[in-house]
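Reopening this one. Same input as before:
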Amino acid sequence: MQICDSNYLMSEPIIFYKRNLPHWHPPGRSLSLTWRLHGSWPQTVINQLRITRQHLQNKRQPGPGNSANDQILEYKKLFAKVDAILDKAKTGPLWLKEIAIANLVQHTLLERYAKLYILWAYVVMANHLHVLLKPKGEITLGSITKHLKGYTAREANRLLGRTGQPFWQDESFDHWPRDQKEFSRIVDYIENNPVKAGLIKRPEQWTWSSAAERKRRGWIDFRALT
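Same output, byte for byte:
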């Protein structure tokens, strides 16, 4: 796999903003995103995330040991812990397990809003979604998120008879690959999520994933899906 954004430099300007979680968005780069269903985390986890977010924000102040790499490493460790919680969840909303809703989310990613981004990888799990994409041209991540989450929320709630109720959690995890090695690692992480969760033995066996979609298209090599 030799597809990656060029000229990854840690010195490039990074857009930073915060709500309950920290976000780093370098312009023109591919981004790994995780969206979860509303109510899929217990309150104790949400509280810990808020504490960690504040800790990371404090570490952004200049000083020894407060480098961007340190923050990124701590953020990635947090992400891994939270993702493991989502994978093992047996309670809480699991609406993405319903075939009609999983198909809806997959169709939305691959077709309805495909003009907004280059889609590298994705997987739809029972209570969360992983994607790796790159916004096209001047399109912002906020616009992409608004379209994808807004449409799927409305349509999924319609199928569930839950009109007007929250579907996705407002917050999301995001991370951008710094080099080709990390880009490949993120693709593997996303596509092996169902394998790690013990749902299947090989990534391409999970219907709602980029691994399965490439197989459906008869592709042997790795390439963008949109």
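So the earlier flakiness isn't reproducible anymore. For the record, The two ends are 17 Å apart (CA to CA).
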